[in-house]
Design goal:
InterPro entries: His_Pase_superF_clade-1, His_PPase_superfam, Phosphoglycerate_Mutase. It contains 7 helices and 6 strands; from the N terminus they run E-H-H-E-H-E-H-H-H-E-H-E-E. The chain is an alpha/beta fold.
Length: about 210
Amino acid sequence: MGTCNCLDVFLVRHGITDWNLEKRYLGHTDREVIKSELTRLDNLKNVLATTSFDSVYTSDLRRCLETLAYIQIPAKASIDTRLREINFGDWEGKNYQQLKDKQAYRNWIDNWENNPIPNGETASQFKARIDSFFNLCLQQQIGNAIGVKKRILIMTHGGVIRYLVSTYVPSTSFWDVSVKHGQATRLTFKKQKGEWLCSSLSAEPFQEKER
């Protein structure tokens, strides 16, 4: 038995919630998706229906679980709290207009990695839990023979996807990454000299523009 040396990772952002529509910061607060908005995921649902996944992982928050249930991936999902969005602390439920005059917020916007969120999660804490999940996820991808391609799907949040893409795709910064609700971002990894390297980035079809 050899190891898989090619891996497709589908990173999917959950469907839209009321706070998303209102442009409010939504981290660990457990809001549900807007049921009437789920049909916007139908194009993605149809694309993913033609793909066989070896493993499926999801955040434990309702907006991810409800989205995953809607797109009906025929594989049992592993629920992992490490896939949660960053904890926005005092900023949970607030929008830009409510925060724009606060110095701590302006500092965070300018440099989110070195300026903490009041009573929230630091960048280092956020990165550490995502790295912990994803590094283990990569290590566990074992195929029946060398050359076998495996596919995994991860249902998660915008900040998590931004971090993973900016970490593995060269010359891509955190804020450069655009992540639509219900859109799949596919990263293709190849294992070279014992290390997983991202060889391509693509977005799966998504018909409607973000509001």
